Amino acid sequence: MSNSAVRVSPLFLGLVGLTVLGGVLATLENNAARVGGVVLIVLGGWATSLCLHEFGHAITAFRGGDWSVRAKGYLTLDPRHYTDPVLSIVLPLIFVALGGIPLPGGAVWINHHALRSRRTESMVSLAGPLMNLVLGLLISAAVALVPMPTGLAAGLSYLAFLQVIAFVLNILPIPGLDGYGAIEPWLSVPAQRFGEKARPWAPLVLFLLLIGVPFVGQAFFGLAYFVFDLVGGDTLHTYLGQSMFRSIFGFL
């Protein structure tokens, strides 16, 4: 892969900077500044992770033979290239702000015919959620190993938990999600046709089940907390971070 293939967008760097600013504010003694810092950590960090998720798909596809992702701008980490900015960035951020499940954000359009093998196709699909899992692991490790003020630990822990939720959600083998994309190349042609028809509405049905059927939501979050424990997540700081985050939106 050429070293010039990846060009980091200034807009992405701005999102990173916003997250860092939130981290600084979260260390202050002033409660309003601390809460504002947590909000910036979560919103800025989540927007950053959306870009990294889609970049994971794109860079894996590029290495697997689909060089068109470079021309489409997917290797720039620029959120404007990951489909519609409202559907891909703003809407998921609103769901996070409401304290809900962070829905899959963007999408990169891959030329599957250019990929070298079915295994490569599966890896392209898995790369996005694995990026979320790695982010959750790294952030959790930072909270566990680096002494930091409570506000900063709370904001980062909640952000790490959102990464784990995104991983668990996306890895489900449901049409429209990455977990299904990983197994789709190995399915029979009739099964693939059914999946193609189900792709537009299956994630919506899943979302309605998660918010409308108690035992489905409980099972999902139970699995999410199990994975969060595996990556070393701090549950107490996560609860505090969520509480601080939601307080600014008046949902306490």
UniProtKB/TrEMBL annotation:
It comes from the Bacteria. Its main location: membrane. GO terms for molecular function: metal ion binding; metallopeptidase activity. GO terms for cellular component: plasma membrane. Its cofactor is Zn(2+). Belongs to the peptidase M50B family. It is found in: Cell membrane. This is Site-2 protease family protein.
